[in-house]
Amino acid sequence: MADFSNVQMSLQRGAGAIQNNKYISAITNGLMSAMPITIVGALGSLVNSFPVQGYQDFLVNTGLKAITVIPSEITTNLLAIYVVYLIAAKFAESYDIDGTPAGILALMSFLIVTPFNYSEANTLASLPATWMGAPGLFTAFLVALLSAKVYTIFKIKGWVIKMPDGVPPTVSKSFSGLVPGLVLAVLAMVIRYVMTLTAFGDIHSFIFSVVAAPLTKLGGSFTALLVAMFAAQILWLVGVHGAMVVYSVFMPIWTPLGTENLAAYNAGLEIPNIVSGSMFGMVVFMGSGATLGLAMAMLRAKSEQ
User: Fold this and answer.
1) Model-level pTM greater than 0.90?
2) Coiled coil located at which positions (predicted)?
3) Which of 8, 103, 165, 257 is most buried as measured by Cβ atoms within 10 A of its Cβ?
């Protein structure tokens, strides 16, 4: 019994460390805050790509196809923009600091390191949509955390422009983000320039090739799903909400996979990933082993006694 208690305490401490980790919590809370965006994108994809030929012909013939595609294009395919803001804001809020400036500065940094498409007149022509969606999520995670960390350090250390007491709070808050904003802008430009000297060309390609692709390949396997489910059950045995702990760890990996599935469905392509956050939700969040069905069956169960 003493041995089990020791194991229980060790697992509880480990789970607590994960749940209390500000970086993991910021990513998890940021992605959860983006849930309305992903749901709207999913519903938009369903409306736009409902697999009935007569329905699709109706959309095309009436010109509605160009309208029904908009929700998924500005949600699923631009998810990295929403996420980079939300994660940075949540990270700053974990230090009891206003998250809005942190989110804005993180978004600025993300756009600076993103390779724009320029016209012949050397003016901005367009943003690369490729890195605004699922492929750019891992870069969004890292940029958001780095930007928010720099911002919180400046705020905690007091390295900000302080206005006189008579200045309205809104104006004072605006100036408080100026110094960290300048530092982040310079840092992002340095990263942008350094990456142009490499074979990758930009930070997005580097992170996607070196970090995102291996992690999603590993975390998107059935083995990883089984490990996650098994770990969730073990944590439940020691009194820890296993599903939430496991999901907070795997969510940064599974979210890009689910976003990629939505984009493929909306484009009429084959769904590339079987394992994603949605699959984990179906087999775990409904009750381990999908016991929701068992609970419903028990409502009608009768004893012969």
Assistant:
1) no
2) none
3) 103
Tens of each residue's pLDDT in the chain, 305 residues: 556 667 667 777 777 777 789 999 999 999 999 999 999 998 999 899 888 999 999 999 999 999 999 998 899 889 999 999 999 999 999 999 999 999 999 999 999 999 887 666 667 667 788 899 989 999 999 999 999 999 999 999 999 988 888 888 888 878 889 999 999 999 999 999 999 999 999 999 999 999 988 988 888 888 888 888 888 778 777 667 777 778 778 888 888 998 888 888 888 888 899 888 877 777 665 555 556 677 777 788 777 66
Tell whether 199 and 262 lie within a shared domain: no
Domain final residue pick, 219, 248, 266: 219
Q: Domain range for residue 186? A: 75-219
